Every structure is written in C-alpha cells, then in structure tokens.
Amino acid sequence: MTDPHHVVDPVTGEEAAIVYEGVYKAFGDFEVLRGLDLVVPRGRITCVIGRSGTGKSVTIKHIMGLLRPDKGRIFVSGRDITAMSDRERRKVRLKFGMVFQNAALFDSLTVFDNVAFPLREHSKLSKAEIADRVQHMLAQVGLSGASSKFPSELSGGMRKRVGLARALIGNPEFLLYDEPTTGLDPILAAAMDALIADTQAANPELTSLVISHDMKAVLGIADKIVMLYEGRVVHEGTPDYFRNSDDALVRQFLEGSLDGPMKV
Amino acid sequence: MVVRMVEAVGRTSIGAWQRFLGALEELGRATVIGLRGLANLFLPPVRLRLIIEQTEFIGVSSLPIILLTSAFTGAVFTLQSYRAFAIFGAEAMVGGTVGVALTRELGPTLTGLLVAGRAGSAMAAELGSMRVSEQIDALEAMAVDPVNYLVKPRLAASILSMPILTAIFDAVGVAGSYLVGVYLLGMSKPEFLVRLGDWVDWDDIWTGLFKATVFGLLMGVISCYKGYYTTGGAAGVGRATTSAVVVTSVSVLVTNFFIAWLLP
Ligand SMILES: Nc1ncnc2c1ncn2[C@@H]1O[C@H](COP(=O)(O)OP(=O)(O)O)[C@@H](O)[C@H]1O
Ligand SMILES: [Mg+2]
Question: What is the pTM of this model?
C-alpha cells in the first residue's frame, strides 16, 4: 500500500472506503491481530470470514475506535481515525451504523425507542417525523407489529432485525454487521442475508462490511470476501475465487471438515 | 535453602507490589470515571428525565428497607439505652442520646450500607450486563457518550437520594424511639421530647446529611465503576455486583470514621 489516502481495491476495482494498514492488537499476552491489511471497497458488500475467536469482532470494533490498535493505522474515507481527537472520532461514528453480534439492543427501551434512539440523540426532527421514520424502518425489516415490545420479548432473529433498523435509521454511509446470521435457523438466516442484499441494493452508496464465520452464506451476497486466519488476511477475492480455490485452508473452511491446516 | 527463601520472599513481595499497583490503578480509573461523571453534570445533554428516573428508582427501591430498619433501630436502641440509663436513674437522657446517635452516626451509616446493598448492587448489575451484552459499545458506536448517558444520571441520583433517605431514616428512627420510650417503657412525653430537643442540634443533623451526601457519591462512583468495567460474561456481572456492595460498604465505614474525626 503506497498512499493509504487513495487506494483502489484490487478485487472490485472500486475506490477504498476503509483501509487497515498493518494493524496489531493484543489483549495482555494474547495477540489477536498480527499485521492486518484490509481494504473495504466503497458501495459494495465486503465479507470478512474466519473462525470463531480469530478476532473478527475485534477487527470491526477498530473501525469506529471502540478499540485502539497497538500498532498500525486505520483510514476511513482517507482519514486516519487512530490519530483523531475524541470529538472528531465521534463525528466519524455518525456515518456508521453497526449491527452487533447479539443485537445489543437497550433492554430498558421498547423496540420503537431503540430504533428512534439515534434520531433523538442526533437529529432535530420533530416527534411526528421521528415516529414516521421509525415505523417506516420497522416495516422495512418486517417488524411493524413489534414496536411497543421490549427486547426481552423478541426472538433472536427479531432482535437482529431491530438492530439493523436501529443501524439504518440515521442513513449511514457505512454499515457494519457482526455475525448477522449466527444463531438463526437456516430460514431466518436466509431471510437476513436477503435483507442485507436488499438493503445494499436500495442504497447503492452504502458500504457494507459483513463479519461471518459462515463461508457458504456469504458466497451469495458478497462482492468481496476476505479470509482472516491467525490475525492476518490469508485470502481475498470474489466469491468465484473462493468457490474455485483449491487452497487447503479455503477448502477446509468451505466444507467445514476436520482434516486440514486448521486444528480444533 | 537461603536462596530459596530469598526467592520466596522476593516472589511474595513482587506479588504484593503488583497487587498494590493493581489497587492503585483501580483507584485511578474509578476516580477518572467519577470525575468524568461529575463534569458531565455541567455538560449537555442534561438528561433530566434519566436523573429523575434513577432517583426514583433508588428512592423507591430503598424506601421499604429504610423504613423498616430505621423504625427498629430507633426502637431497640431506646430499649437498650433505657435499661442502661435506668441503673443510675437517668432515664430522661434516652431521647437525647438516641436522637444524637441516630442523626450523627446511625442514620447516615446504616442508610449508606442499606442503599449500597439495595440500589448500588442494582446499578452495578445493570451497567455490568449492559457492558457484557455490548450495549455500552452500542452507545459509543452511536456517538453517545456512555458516561453522560449512563454514569451521570446514576451519580446524580445517588448524591441526591442518600441525604433524603437519611433524613427519612432519622425521622422514622426517632419516631420508633418515641413510641418505644413513651408507650412501651412508660416515659412521659415531655421527658422524652425535652432532652431530644435540647441535645439534637442542627449541627448534628447537617453533619449527618453531609456524611450521607459523601456516601452517596462513594456509592455512585464505586457502583458505576464496577459495572462499567465488567468483563467476563454473566459471572463477571455477579463479581462486579458483589464487589460494588463490599467496596462501598467498607468505604462508607472508613469514611464515616474520618469525617467523625475531622468534624467533631
Ligand atoms: N475486550 C477484550 N479483552 C480481552 N480479550 C478480548 C477482548 N475482546 C476480544 N478478546 C479476545 O480476542 C479474541 C477474538 O475475539 P473476537 O474478535 O470476539 O472473535 P470473533 O472472531 O469470534 O468475533 C477472543 O479470544 C477474545 O477472547
Ligand atoms: Mg465475534
């Protein structure tokens, strides 16, 4: 990577929206990221896959500065967020929506209030406008009837969709999904994948980053797939590249087999 | 042999030194979050609704136990001191003695201990479960300062509620004492009341309420700190909760001594 401010993604040919440059992160003696280089193209769906515990969530949390790298830099739209002040970083965060692994809805608020939360905090919209937008967004994720329920009354799949609605309500430039389909039954998982693809299709400017350990699921929705292993990117390419790869690591991951370079 | 002993001493002292450094670091982090919480009292958004909600929660959840404990503390204290004073015919001193002890010492201290057990534990548990379920990360991801949104209201409510609950403790304790003195032990009403009025100064009451305010601050900072920095899932929430109550209780007792010493 020569100039991190102007990078073109080699896989899609798109301009890079997010660039990780040699990122290291350890918790105590435990090294999670060991020189991560990653390019997320603008306006596309990029999927990062890797085994549970390889640091996918840690990777995604670095983008918004929820975690700080020990070494390395992270550029969002060409600006190094690791060198920003708290106030600047907060501004950058407003451009993001994040769907957390377990939704991370606020237990004490209803579905409606959860989805309205970002608008109430950051917009000057009237009550009626907020209500309109929230209802519209809930309808989009298929949850019109649930607005007065509390998160504890929802199933895992419904919670994730509320999380998506909350992430989308502020019209983000970047949408981050942390394991959107994990813990869902196959039908709900397929519905969630379709929702991710639809969301992208409806917002062509949107840059989506999906974290998953399910290679098969991401083959259908990704424009670019990045495979994480031992804290580094070991493969990147289009879904076809991964389908046709005969690399042992990729095959093992695709087939979920016990034999191969990855040990349990 | 000698070398082994030196080694053992070395290891123990290194262990003790590390524990000391760990404790110092904890104290530092707790102080920082306390100061940030206090500073946020003067920073927007004000979050008045959350402050009222939290005050209501602490007040309402603690009121029954405060009423019960104060009535019986006043009652039993009266019973015992009456018996002691009766030995040298000084029964008339009961009202005043109980009044001073309640307003200066027992009121604030017992209220501090009880509210820590009832409300401090709940605050630590709530923040702890918000931490481990990534709700605090979600706040940050939505560019909302969790200290402003979560810590400030709880800190303000703790500082506000503790003196109010202490005043209630004092009043109900004295009432319990009066009932036992007059109706159970057969003291005359003026006998009880005159000494009470003579002996209990506004100074005693203010000192007690000042203590209570300090205890409220301690409980708020310690419970929020323990909850905010919870790690390790559900077990971690349990640890944070227990530790919030224990540390608050010890701090209340120790601080009480120093205030009594410095403010005679
Ligand atoms: N805040 C943290 N403190 C300590 N260890 C952490 C923290 N966050 C993540 N880890 C560790 O880093 C590793 C990677 O975690 P994570 O990114 O959540 O994995 P996954 O790829 O399944 O999302 C795990 O072993 C986890 O225990
Ligand atoms: Mg994860």
Answer: 0.91
